[in-house]
Design a protein that fits this description.
- By secondary structure, the chain is α/β, with parallel strands linked by helices.
- It has 14 helices and 17 strands.
- It has helices spanning 7-11, 39-51, 62-82, 96-106, 129-138, 155-161, 184-193, 213-216, 241-246, 281-294, 299-318, 345-353, 367-372, 389-407, and strands spanning 20-21, 24-25, 27-28, 90-93, 116-120, 141-145, 166-172, 197-201, 220-224, 235-239, 257-260, 265-267, 323-326, 335-340, 357-358, 360-362, 378-382.
- The strands form five sheets. The protein has a seven-stranded mixed sheet with strand order 4-10-9-8-7-5-6, sandwiched between helices. It has a four-stranded antiparallel sheet with strand order 13-14-17-16, covered by helices on one side.
- Strand 7, helix 7 (184-193) and strand 8 (197-201) form a beta-alpha-beta unit.
- It is globular.
Length: 408
């Protein structure tokens, strides 16, 4: 049974959906790379620059006080959105990548030679490289949870990897290249039983499911604003207060200090200890607007509608000869990666672009995933609640025509 979801109502909120590409209406199916922005987010960022631009904290003039209030209220909205205990547990960063690097360097510095970090085979490079760098610095060892041909983690193997040497488990919640939804709560519980902390990369998950860090009991969680209809250049690191208090600053400079002399620097309290320099003020305000916007739409409605789109997209693409879906996990969200025999994904992306269709092609910053499936790259259609079945039909026709071009 199909949901009753008024997609046209929400499409009207996104100005980009009104543009043409190569003379064709834009079909935007690259939401896993970055989502489009609703008018309210654009207006919020614009309003800051037009009527309220000022730096935050320490200023006593009107504009600075207004900007500071808006900035800190945004932190309050994020705290509510992820159900953190305190605003002190919400750190603003440039994005999920910086958030993961912050934890790797500021928490990971306590690791010793022989300590172990567990990640999975389906991680984004941003959840691989920082841990490799930490391993080189400290002598700790990186362990990898394998996956099966459906693109699902093999949980029995994860249990075997856990030991008293395990200090960190860092796992993606939703794979950006496969769409797999990992059982993060079970992963976190198992990590804690082994005495390790658990870090969740929620960059893709935040648009697909409600986030409750207290229910998950994760030690850290990261996401990027631009993946959830907010601006680029802003992200969030959630961390349990007990860990953040013990961690040294990631960067030094203004706003992360209480006092500085040539003899000694005293660091600021949370969350400012980790927010050196002028923060992305407009972007933080825009992120708040995005989170407020997404919460006006019932999560159950979004989930049901996107699951219908996922099923429809999978059916339409699978019906085209020589098309193979990469990533067929039982628990999956609205990301469909695929290859077409005889066509390199980059060529396919160029051809469908002429029909106005925007899909991502490449390794999606998950080269180990591509190596596992023995493909150089994939084409990826990633869906948002503003996409339609008609757009999927346009994609399917464009892919079929591309195949015909290469057969001619």
């Amino acid at each position: 049974m199909e949901s009753i979801f008024d997609v046209q109502r929400y499409r009207a909120d996104f100005p980009n959906l009104k543009i043409n590409v190569h003379g064709k209406p834009l079909v935007y199916l690259d939401n896993a790379a970055t989502t489009l922005k609703p008018r309210c987010v654009i207006d919020a960022v614009n309003a800051y620059y037009v009527t309220g631009v000022s730096n935050v904290h320490r200023g006593v003039h009107y504009l600075s006080e207004q900007a500071t209030a808006a900035f800190e209220y945004s932190r309050h909205v994020v705290r509510q959105f992820i159900h953190a205990r305190k605003v002190q547990e919400v750190i603003f960063t440039k994005g999920a990548t910086e958030s993961l690097n912050l934890v790797a360097q500021s928490y990971g510095c306590r690791l010793k030679p022989g300590d172990e970090i567990i990640i999975s085979h389906m991680e984004h490079h941003s959840n691989i490289v920082p841990w490799q760098m930490l391993a080189q610095q400290t002598g700790c060892v990186l362990k990898i949870i394998p996956m099966n041909q459906n693109g699902e983690l093999i949980m029995e193997e994860y249990q075997k990897l856990l030991s008293d040497k395990t200090k960190i488990v860092s796992i993606v919640w939703v794979s950006n290249s496969l769409g797999t939804v990992n059982p993060v709560k079970a992963i976190i519980e198992a990590a804690h039983k082994a005495g390790a902390i658990a870090i969740i990369d929620a960059a893709q998950a935040v648009t697909h499911t409600p986030v409750n860090v207290q229910d998950l009991d994760c030690d850290f969680l990261v996401f990027s604003g631009h993946k959830i209809f907010g601006p680029t250049g802003v992200g969030v690191l959630y961390g349990k207060e007990k860990w953040l208090e013990t961690m040294p600053p990631y960067q030094g400079g203004g706003d992360m200090i209480k006092s500085v002399t040539f003899a000694k620097t005293t660091y600021n309290d949370l969350p400012y200890k980790f927010e050196a320099g002028t923060p992305p003020i407009a972007e933080v305000i825009g992120l708040r607007s995005a989170l407020e916007y997404i919460q006006t739409i019932p999560w159950d409605s979004i989930k049901q509608y996107k699951n219908e789109l996922l099923e429809y997209t999978t059916q339409r693409l699978s019906s085209i000869p020589h098309v193979r879906i990469i990533g067929t996990a039982k628990e999956k969200t609205s990301i469909v990666s695929f290859v077409v025999d005889g066509i390199h994904p980059h060529d396919l992306g160029t051809l469908v672009d002429h029909d106005g269709v925007a899909v991502r092609t490449g390794h999606h910053c998950t080269q180990p995933v591509m190596e596992f499936f023995k493909v150089p790259a994939t084409a990826r259609a990633s869906l948002a609640f503003y996409n339609t079945r008609e757009e999927i039909d346009i994609l399917a026709r464009a892919v079929a025509r591309a195949r015909e071009v290469f057969e001619a």
